[in-house]
Write a structure and sequence with these properties.
Helix content is 46%, strand content 9%. It has 392 residues and is an alpha/beta fold.
Length: 392
Amino acid sequence: MTPAELSRTVLHAVRRAVDEDALRAPVPARVRVERTRPGGSGDYACAVALQLAGPAALPALEVARILRERVAAEPGVGRVDITGPGFLSFTLDAPAVNDRAVLAAVREQGLAYGHGDALRDEIHQFHHAREVRAAVTAQTVRRLLTAQGARVRTTCAEPPDPDWVRLGVTVDAHGTPPVPLTGIRPVPAGATAGELLERLGPDAARWGLLRAAGHDRAALGPELLVQGEANPLFRVRYAHARARALTRGAAALGFTAEAAPYGESPAEPAAHGESPTAPAAHGTSPAAQAANTEPAATTAHDAAARPLLDLIADHPGVLLAGARHRAPDRVARQLEAVAHAFFDFHDSCPPLPAGDEKPSAAHRARLAIAEAAGTVLAGGLSLLGIRAPEHL
């Protein structure tokens, strides 16, 4: 990570803190980071917390703590310390180490990758009209919040439409609440659940209802059923199915995924006479192994993998933001971006050998990235209440 990239990372953390209402201050145009002076800690440091303390009406140390938890989770950042009156000090990871940790976390957590307990102290009660888009949105927001540890209850103004069950929607109660509750009020769909199910089926109907932001009209036309890359839903599900097909193809060729970048795979001889990586202790989780293993080399993945790896690493933050802002459309757009990056990566760096080519460390590493992308897509679709078939 270069100083310019680190500056953008810190600025992104400031924007996130402001968007999440954790920090009430104007977002600066840029954040200046400098090499740590002799005797200081970390690789780089910045004074942005001191800069924002006044406008935020918070002590600089509190601003620094708010930013630290957001910067520390970013790819390439190994550790963030707070020094002095509120300086942030950054120790950077080698990209290969961070990528391996992300891929191991996806493999370990599976469809729950990106779930957490950041909202465990929150209780939400939502109320919506007897309208299909409001019902599907409320139910999906509930899924997103529950995945982050919150407790959620949803009610409807009238008895629910019986067809909602076929869209995976249930409500806890109906009628007029005794006290005002948080309303879920997207632009109405202009059709009933039964009509949408007859025209589109449950998966396309849910995608159409959720893909647009709540203040925009939902696109619910026949384009949702097109089996081609112009249809975002098809592209997302096809990317997932292709990722699963790669795993089956690799198994037929006798190899499996390995998260280590090229040159680090324990299945390959160590380069230039270096010792191979020692085996992990029994009972150690994959994520812990990835974080604690000292790599024999720092060779990165293919450059073409970087956009996809970054999106996979960003996925937990997108899910949390989608929950905080009650915005399932953010998750849908994230899945579209992952699918697009997956196909770019797949076409540039084939995970399976061709012809008489033998499986190599590069293929194992690429397969690990492809499998992680497939897991992210399946998990995201699940939160949206949409099936992720392994065959299309």
